[in-house]
Specification:
The chain has six helices and eight strands, in the order H-H-E-H-E-E-E-E-E-H-E-E-H-H. It is of the alpha/beta class and 340 residues long. The protein has a single domain (45-339), classed as 3-Layer(aba) Sandwich (Collagenase (Catalytic Domain)). The strands form two sheets. Strands 1, 2, 3, 4, 5 and 6 form a six-stranded mixed sheet that branches. Helix 1 crosses helix 2 and helix 2 crosses helix 5.
């Protein structure tokens, strides 16, 4: 398989304290009901990424250093690690209505879905075409709700914050208590996941490693989080979080976020693709002269429906593991103390 071009580089009160917060200027506060989930996958990570590049010049420099270090770590490895890592997770439920205040069961269903996807024990991996089935491997990454909060007190790993905002945009306002959301727990110790009603037809967005600590984490639409409760098709299998956490672990979209086949996801075993795939494509879908097998549209880092994305590749796993050995190593160091 040809190497990709590298010319281009997604009610109840709070368990601690509910907030009757003043929403940000960008947050929608009309009385209209939140819009239903989009019919096609939408990810705001690259928009957030580009905004951070402009707002924080040091972020651009950090990404350059990170990419060089990641490539070096991958090149130095002769095999994928056999050591499992458990990521401490805090889920910040930010809600206006009772429906948006999703249950503990729905939160746990997302953790369960993540652990199936990241361990490659999801039964639907059988849908991977035989030409790529040998690339499907266990990431050795697991997720668990935190059992200790930043003060060392017991927690169930869930915070609940009541807001007056009808929806939140991708401006990170949901990550700020001053703007109607909830402040992050220390991002060097926890994976912060905010669950809320998102505007603009978004399913979620994430922040790549190297960005501001106060906004580091993942945001997911409440109707696309978990597998029970308000989770709804075609995004009711928890894979919006699988996709966005992939970004948090430094994975890019498989088409490289260009339209002319010049983009790259910096992974050798995912074929070049011209554009995102949506819905439920039929194999093979050929673009960028990548026949006969075509686009790896069933990859978690494409834009297909939840029941169609079913795999990470070994190359993507190596990249995620390099991230945990590098810019997110402090998460690994703190994992046992916060999840047991």
């Amino acid at each position: 398989m040809a190497k990709k071009s590298t010319r281009s580089a997604k009610a109840k009160k709070s368990t601690r304290s509910a907030k009757s917060a003043t929403p940000s200027r960008a947050a929608e506060t009309s009385a209209a009901a939140p819009t239903p989930p989009p019919m096609h996958r939408t990810c705001g990570t690259m928009e957030v990424h580009n905004r951070l590049l402009e707002l924080h010049p040091e972020y651009r420099a950090a990404l350059g250093r990170l990419e060089m270090a990641t490539s070096a770590r991958i090149a130095a490895r002769t095999a994928l690690t056999a050591t499992k890592v458990t990521i401490p997770v805090v889920v910040h439920v930010v809600f206006r209505t009772n429906e948006e205040n999703i249950s503990d069961q729905q939160v746990q269903s997302e953790i369960d879905a993540l652990n199936k996807d990241y361990s490659a024990t999801n039964p639907d991996k059988s849908h991977v075409p035989s030409v790529w089935s040998g690339l499907v491997v266990d990431t050795m990454i697991r997720f668990a709700l935190a059992k200790k909060d930043p003060s060392g007190k017991p927690t169930n790993g869930i915070t609940r914050t009541q807001t007056t905002a009808t929806t939140f945009p991708q401006d990170d306002s949901v990550k700020s208590s001053a703007q109607g959301g909830q402040d992050a727990w220390p991002s060097d110790k926890y994976l912060n996941i905010w669950v809320c009603s998102l505007g603009g037809g978004l399913l979620g967005y994430a922040q790549f490693p190297g960005g501001p600590a106060t906004t580091d984490g993942v945001v997911i639409l409440n109707k696309a989080f978990g597998t029970v409760g308000s989770a709804a098709p075609p995004f009711g299998l928890g894979r919006s979080a699988t996709h966005e956490i992939g970004h948090w672990l430094n994975l890019r979209h498989i088409w490289g976020d260009t339209e002319d086949c010049s983009g790259t996801d910096f992974v050798d075993d995912t074929p070049n693709a011209q554009l995102p795939n949506f819905g439920k494509p039929v194999f093979p879908h050929v673009s960028c002269s990548n026949g006969p097998n075509g686009d790896m549209f069933m990859n978690y880092m494409d834009y297909v429906d939840d029941d169609t994305m079913v795999m990470f590749t070994a190359g993507q796993v190596a990249r995620m593991q390099a991230t945990l050995a590098g810019p997110r190593s402090s998460i690994v160091t703190m994992a046992a103390a916060l999840t047991s």
